[in-house]
Structures are given as structure tokens and as C-alpha cells.
Amino acid sequence: MKKLITLFGFIFLYVNTWAQVNLPEIFFVNYQQHYAPINPAHLGFSESKSVDLRYASYNGAKKVLKSMYADVVFNPIDSLRIRSGLQAYAFHEGEFIQYNNIKWLNSYSVTNQRDFKLAFALGLGAVNYSYVNNVEQASDWGFDMDAGLWLEYKKWNVGLSGKHILPTILKPIETTFKLNQMAHFIVRYKLINTLNTSLETSVHYVYNSQVFMDLPLSLYNHLVYKKTLVGICNVNGLSLLTIGVGFQENKQYHLPFSLNIAFQQKLNDKTITPNNRYEIGLHKKF
Amino acid sequence: MKRLLLCDLKGIELKSIFMFRIFCISLVVFLKISSAYALDYTVLNRYKNQKVIWAFVPASSISKVVINSNTTLNFPTQNPYLIAYFKMDPSGTLINVGQGIYKPNAKTIIPLKNDNTGNTGYLPNERYVTLIKDTVTQKTYAIEFNYKENKNFYSKNDSSEITSIKLAAWNNFPKDTISVCRNVGQNLSYTPIYGLGYQLVLYNPIKADTNTNVIYTDTLSVGKYRATILYFAASYLLDTLNFKVIDKPSVNTKTEVNICEGDYYSVKSPSIDYVLNDKNNNGLTLNKAGEYFYELNYKGYCPVKDTIVVSLKNCADNKNIISPNRNTKVSFKENGTVKIFNKYDQLITTLSAPVEWDGTDSNGNLLAPGVYFAVYENDNNAIALTILH
Q1: Nearest alpha-carbon partner for B292 in B304, B305, B277, B282
Q2: CA distance A60 to chain B (A)
Q3: ipTM for the complex?
Q4: B270 to chain A, closest Cα gap in Å
């Protein structure tokens, strides 16, 4: 418990020091410790079959930005090494612009030892930009690809992935949209792992080809109590604080799925206020 | 006596045989003279102005017939009473371009008596049509004529008479490849003249496809085709058409649009030049309600023609849309400093209100489409703005 208190104290000490941009396209990825939205290789470390649903939006002026995500993970050939998944993502940028993405994910575990697992994955699919609700409705499609690598070694997890690595350009009408090429690097460490308490902390680095970020680092903390109650505390660039609560799927307590609700507050807001983001996630294992 | 009689009888027989031989020889000579004489009787008429010669060829094993002192005809057949038609080119050479007689308005071929047994054929005294194809220009003509026949074809005085002749251009297809649009009802059909039966055969670049009288282009995929016109039974190639089926461009169009007053609507598609006119061809006036006609033209595609009905709406509550290339701006009327942020909360530009923002950053560059947020300094109430091009 001392470690936990120390950790949170350390976080809040630096809360107001650095500026950080908010990327509305990405989710709080430590939800259910399911990292498939940013790294397809993590499929190899998920349950053999699962469904994940997420929704995120804002209060205030930014409520026009909405993200929706869904994925299905399954084991197509009943192998411990191979996982497949279908992933869909939609981002509504206001009333008129919509971004859609659908991908087929395949993950392969190179090694599957108890203390050492390594998986790599590819995600292939299509991406779409559309003008909707306008007198001139238009849409354009292009190919999209993700790639990822995930390593688990004892208490450590390391993930490296590239999102939208193809130089796809979409042109609905005469407008040009170039995909944000992103790289994610995550290091996760299991701080506490007792019978009743589990605490994992992660550092997440994001590279975005089109958006300059002063400090593209996030710190995630994921606490599970009695394998049921969940609490998260994230600091994004030390300027955005995310607090979340939820419960995990647990047959003992008749909880058929996992549910999380999180709220993100900008702490040193020098730009727009209010700028609060909320997110709801649901996860079901099979 | 018997011997005398015999001698006499022999003498009589010898005489009879001699006379019979004389008769036979005379007959052969007569027939040969008659036959040779018939050869000279081949040209019945000549139409000088129309450069078409009507030739009536008797039964003969001779394939060369002298028409006049300058021209020799080569007939492709030795059938009796072959009716043939000829086209004379400017040099005077006659070209056999077809055979057969067709009765107008009957859609049937009138057969000649042509059983190769030496029986003569006949032509009733009626009006006839036949076809001539110019082997140089590949154009086909129809000749309409009235035919009047005398009784005996073999007689020197026989005078089959063409009482009138009309040279009419056939419905020739263009020689060059033409473009046909799909899904706009541009079907290809072949209109027969004189009610003559024909067969239209469609080919794609690989093989024969269908037999039809009309090519319904809506059923064809985009590509190159060839169509041929054949006479039924005669399999006589009348004409060939090379065409390609092209499609309408993919455009986003609406038949009814509701636009803000001061804005305008245009029919657009990537890289397609468009022409938009009202019904009076007065140009772009789509800031007013009304019915407009437009036409899209793009190389390699069919033109798209359609109608748009434009209605206007009150956009007083819709001022948060900026369309820089339509000169639509957002007004900040109250005094103060306005900051514009993008969706990542990054500062784009700072404005001194009152001001009209045209969707550009602090360097005057046009911003990408998307949602932006404007907020007065010292005010927490941000406004979401959408830039559309």
C-alpha cells in the first residue's frame, strides 16, 4: 500500500508542469488491459475470445468529437500462438466529417513460455473519410495497415506498434486528408501482485506525424482489488488527469462482463475550458 | 431385185444418212452462231449519270462477257440467268458487288429459278430492290427499280427494261469507332429500308455474343465491341460498326438541394469539369431558388445531364460553418481577443474582434477541413466551428 501512495503522490507532484495535447482519436488504452486499439500484437496476450466496446466524447464545446471502437478477438485454428481479430473504429469530427476504419488483425506468438512471450501482428483494412449531412456528400476509401510487436518478460510488458503506416491519402471532393501516422511505445510493469491487490503502471509514448506534442508521454496506473473492482489513474503528458472506476468480469460475483467509466480533466488548461472527456468501456470474455 | 432393191435401199439409206449429217452439221452451226450471238446481247441498259450498269446475263458456260469495247466483266458464277449488279468506279472498271433480287415490302427474298438444269428463270414485272456495296468506300446502296420483261430471254430482240432506278444511301454506320453511353437509353438499332430482313450480330473483342436487332447498351459492360449487319439467309455483310460502351462518371448529385442564402451549390466530382446553367443558359445563379439544369462533361465519360431544384433556407443559426472557397466567414462581433484552437487544443491563430474569420491560420494559410474551437480570452465558453471546403 505504501508503494501505491508513493506512486500517486509522485504523479500529482508534477501534474501542472508540462503541457500536453489531447489526442481525441485514441482511447485510454489501459482499460481492461486490452491494448488492441493501439497495438495488434497484444491480441496474442488476450483471451482466446473476447469482445471489446468503447465510446468516448467530451463535455462542452468539444462534445462534437466522438470516438467509437469495437473489436472481436477469436482463435481461428484453436492455436495458442495465433489470434485473429476484427477491429472497427469511427471518429465523428463535428456534424459533417466522419472517419471510419475497419481492419482484420492477425497476431502470432513466436514464443509462448510462461515468463517470456513474444508476439508480432499485422492489421490490414480500409479507411474512409466522408462528408456527411452536407449538401455535397462525398466519401473516399483507402488501404490502411498497422503493425505491432509485444513482449512479456516476467513483470514487464513492452509494446511497439505503428498505426496507419501506409501513406494513404484520401480525397473526398477536392479536400485532401492524409492519415496521421502514429507510433506507440508502451512499457508496463507489475508493481504489486498480491492475492487481493494488483497494480500495474505503464508509460506510453506516442509519436504523431502531423501533431506536434510537447511531451507525448502518458503514465497509466491500473489497480484491481479482489480481482473485481478496478481503479485507474492516468496522467497524459502531466497535464491531463484521468480517473476511472469499474469492475471486472467475475463469475463468483455474478458479473458477466467488465465495465469501466473514466473521466479526464485538463489540469493546467491554458486553452479551452471546459474540456472534460469521458469514456465508457465494456469487455466480455468467452 | 432384192440386191437392186438392196442397193437402192442402201443408196436411199446412204442419201438419207448424208442428208441427216448435213442437217446435224447445220444445226450445230446454227446453235453455235446463236450462242455466240447471245453473248453480244448482254447489256440491256446503262445509266450514265449514276454509274450503275444493269446487266442481264444469259445461261452460258462462258465467264467473260463483253459489255462494251472498253470493259470486261468477270462473273463469279455460271448459274443460268444470274442477275448481277455492278458498280462502276471512276476508272470504268466494273465490280461485282452482290447478287440476288429482293422484293420490296415483302421481307422475303424472291428466288430466281436457278436449279442448274438449264431451265430458265423468270422475273415478274414488279418493282425490285437490290443492294450494291462499294468495295472501295465500304458504303452500301440500295437500288430500287421497276422491271419489265419480254417473253424470250434468248431472243436478240428481247429487251428487258428497267423503267426507273433510284440510288439510295443505306443506313451506313460511321467508319470510325463511336462511343455509346450506358444507362442513358442510347441503344443501337438498324433500321432496314424496304422492309428487308437482316441480322445484327454483336461481337465483343473475343467472340460473337448475341444475335439481335437492337443492341441494348445498358446490358453491356464498358468496353469495345463490333456489330455487323448481315442479310438473313444470304449472309451478305452489309455493314460493320465498331463502337465502345462508356459509362457515366461517378458524381454525387442531388435532385433537390436546400442551401443557405448567400451560398451556392455546385455539382462536382474529382477532376470533372462541369457546366452548370439555368434553363435560360444564364450561367451560375444558384444563390436563388429555382430549377437548374446542369451538364457534366469529362473526357472518356458520357456527359451527365440532370436537373436540380434549389430551395433556400434561413441559415442564421448555422453560422458556425466556414467555407473559405465559398467566401463564407464567421463573425466575431463583440470586442475582445479571440483564440482559435484545433481539436488537439493547439493554438492556431489569435484574432482581434470584431472580425470576420475566413478559416486561415496566423500566416494566412488555409486550414484543413475539420472542427476548430473559438474562445474569447477570459471566457470559458468555447464555440465549435467547422471548416468545409
Answers
A1: B277
A2: 8
A3: 0.84
A4: 6
